[in-house]
Amino acid sequence: MSIIKVKPIKHLRAEFEVPGDKSISHRAAIMAGLSDGVCRIDNFLPSEDCLCTLHAMNQLGAKHDVLETQAGYGPTSLNIQGMSMQLSAPADVVDCGNSGTGMRLLAGLLSAQPFDSVLSGDASLCSRPMGRIIKPLEQMGATIHACGDVAGCAPLRITGGKLKPLTYEMPVASAQVKSAILLAGLFTEGKTTVIQPAETRDHTERMLDYFRIPSVRVGDEISVCGGPIPESRDFRVPGDISSAAFWMVAAAAHPGSHLMIQNVGLNPTRTALIDVLIRMGAKINVVVTSEDQGEPCGSVEITGQTLHGTEILRDEVPNLIDEVPILAVAGALADGRMVIRNAKELRVKESDRIATVAQNLRAMGAELDEFEDGMEITGGAALKGAELESFGDHRIAMAFAIAGLFAQGETIINNTACIDTSYPGFADHLSAICLGHSPK
Ligand code: S3P
For the whole prediction, is pTM greater than 0.90? Predict the structure, then answer.
């Protein structure tokens, strides 16, 4: 079993880049594979989640050549051969590993194909709700049988075919559901519209536009018309702000720290963490240096301060949903109360993140009340080192490795191999930071 051991540090001083964005890497593999030629993708995230999607696209006929790799993980630069929207039937079950994004986006794609397929994944993924994509995709004409042990869960047996366009009002604010429907809509004759109850990350829309498939947004409605084939384009994936989030909180909460993260994605549907940290008193300077590939990207500079608790606003929740575990750690380190509500979706992520965050924070001596849709943390109590579980959830493992940097004594996180699903090389970056160096 892989473990991470952490001891407190005095402050954090570093300048570096985090690996490529997970959400964008999934979409780059899919869109390049649908395109009409060869696309070079740089800074692809070679995490287990994204490698599963890359492999799935291979199974559907979109082969790739590796140009550069991150040793021990996988390709970071590659040429993907597009299939001009003519995918071939997979010979085997398509394994999505731990990835909800991979499974839900691929379900949209596969529903529209003239062949049958099966999507599966690990135990965590096979316990996550898939009804939210099955319902709209069946309304478009697919047949999807959720044949897992848990009702409504994977494996998914998909009978694809000619779909009809759909206008769908999403009951949950989910970028994965939105993207599954939009991808399916590309294969229909007509206009597919998704109405979202709150703003969710818009990487799919931006990438469709970048590959010359216009999507139209009017208020909460996003539409795409089926028919055109994505034009092959080269694309560089920006760094993942959700990975940077761990270091951002570590620096923001440590007076005397200075952190510069370069070339990180600054898509406004992903940056609410920065707004919240600023509200908590952090000193943050954000500079957008490029937006040429449809995704804003730049640097985030943080100077550590004493943080104060805050309330996360309802509309901010989808924008920072993946950052809640590390924000909860920030709340425990801040003085005053941190209130996180309207975040019931956390219960169906890679782990039940309300329960797993609460359990680990309490084990470190933090005070909090847990609710069905969130938690209220009374910050300021000194954290003490503890032996903690990751619950097989990458973001829990990393959030509590960061908490350990502030705790008295040693913190041990068990079962940390899951970190490879989103942040290959995290343990090396952590070691460098602990030694007072900038990670390479
Ligand atoms: C993702 C969307 C989010 C997020 C997940 C990645 C995506 O989920 O939690 O890690 O890439 O579309 P939902 O918006 O579906 O809740």
Answer: yes
